[in-house]
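Severity: low
Component: inverse-folding endpoint
Summary: output formatting inconsistent between runs
Steps to reproduce: submit the following structure tokens with default settings.
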């Protein structure tokens, strides 16, 4: 892809040089009624091109920078959400003490599994197989 970009830039530069060579004529640009700017035609064309290109390029770079920051923030948030939580319970702010551990692993439900939804349509309990 880099070679294609280089070829396009070389072709644009060649076209600009050819245009400048064949149109090296002085032109008068009347800015106000008493101010007249005399310049060469290629300089006028290049300045007009840059006056249109630079603001749009700056808008593009700003939007790209903003979107890159947004994507990085979302990726960091996703990484934080996907990180495994520690097994040790955190200290509660009211007492400053950690809650007492459960007596057995079977006494407390696993917190990493989603809760099973209640099914009001099927009143019969399912038997274990």
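Observed output (run 2 of 3):
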């Amino acid at each position: 892809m880099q070679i294609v970009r280089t070829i396009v830039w070389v072709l644009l530069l060649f076209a600009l040089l050819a245009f400048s060579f064949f149109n090296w004529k002085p032109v008068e640009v009347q800015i106000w009624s008493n101010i007249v700017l005399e310049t060469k035609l290629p300089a006028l064309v290049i300045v007009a091109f840059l006056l249109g290109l630079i603001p749009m390029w700056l808008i593009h770079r700003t939007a790209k920078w903003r979107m890159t920051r947004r994507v990085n923030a979302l990726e960091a948030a996703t990484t934080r959400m996907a990180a495994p939580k520690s097994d040790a319970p955190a200290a509660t702010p009211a007492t400053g003490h950690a809650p007492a551990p459960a007596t057995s692993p079977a006494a407390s439900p696993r917190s990493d599994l989603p809760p099973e939804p209640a099914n009001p349509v099927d009143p019969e309990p399912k038997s274990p197989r």
